[in-house]
Design a protein that fits this description.
Chain lengths: 117, 114
């Protein structure tokens, strides 16, 4: 089954304790992206990757890191989480439409609800 | 001010009734506009994608319209079902001097009651 998986689905942690949220897709998509979703703000892009070893900042990259060593995986790293990073996080993947940097249709993972106390 | 505004913020209708959700945007120039459905606790799922030259697009009981002149889009749901209860998100793909960006609306939360 074609899908985007994220782990963990729920995480409660304390300020400053490094954590990683994994994202994996089995559709051979070039494009992968991380978003956070907060009430009243809509989805905001954190980081994206257009292919292996190619990553770039989105709208809200501060406090996050990513890596793209393999095509299928795109982990999100919080080196020193803070309470303002409490949010719902989504990973998404897609093929890239010819000539465009933006995916034509994105497939989203189920989300990771992170609470930082 | 968000460049993609959706209305209403929330809507409750009876099962079987029709409804229309609105999306107004100021993003310009734009390449395409997308509607996503997001069930509670799940990731968004694509419903329709319309380029600037398309006026309407259907996906089953969902019909999206686009007026690029007035920068308005609507999502019409026909004969609503309980499974239509979800948030509906409008997304605009902006292309500006080679820079591309997706701007998300904050969504309309739709509740269908039996």
């Amino acid at each position: 089954e074609a899908q985007v998986t994220q782990n963990p689905r729920y995480l409660i942690t304390v300020t400053g304790k490094k954590l990683t949220v994994t994202c994996s897709q089995n559709m051979n998509h070039e494009y992968m992206s991380w978003y956070r979703q907060d009430p009243g703000l809509g989805l905001r892009q954190i980081y994206y990757s257009m292919n292996v070893e190619v990553t770039d900042k989105g709208d809200v990259p501060e406090g996050y890191k990513v890596s793209r060593k393999e095509k299928r995986n795109f982990p999100l790293i919080l080196e020193s989480p803070s309470p303002n990073q409490t949010s719902l996080y989504f990973c998404a993947s897609s093929f890239l439409a010819g000539g465009h940097e933006i995916p034509y249709e994105q497939y989203f993972g189920p989300g990771t609800r992170l609470t930082v106390t | 001010k968000n460049q993609v505004e959706q209305s209403p913020q929330s809507l409750i209708i009876l099962e079987g009734k029709n409804c229309t959700l609105q999306c107004n945007y100021t993003v310009s120039p734009f390449s395409n506009l997308r509607w996503y459905k997001q069930d509670t606790g799940r990731g968004p799922v694509s419903l329709t994608i319309m380029t600037f030259s398309e006026n309407t697009k259907s996906n089953g009981r969902y019909t999206a319209t686009l007026d690029a002149d007035t920068k308005q889009s609507s999502l019409h749901i026909t004969a609503s079902q309980l499974s239509d209860s979800a948030s509906y998100i409008c997304v605009v793909h902006e292309v500006n001097f080679g820079n591309e960006k997706l701007t998300f609306g904050t969504g309309t939360r739709l509740t269908i009651i039996p």
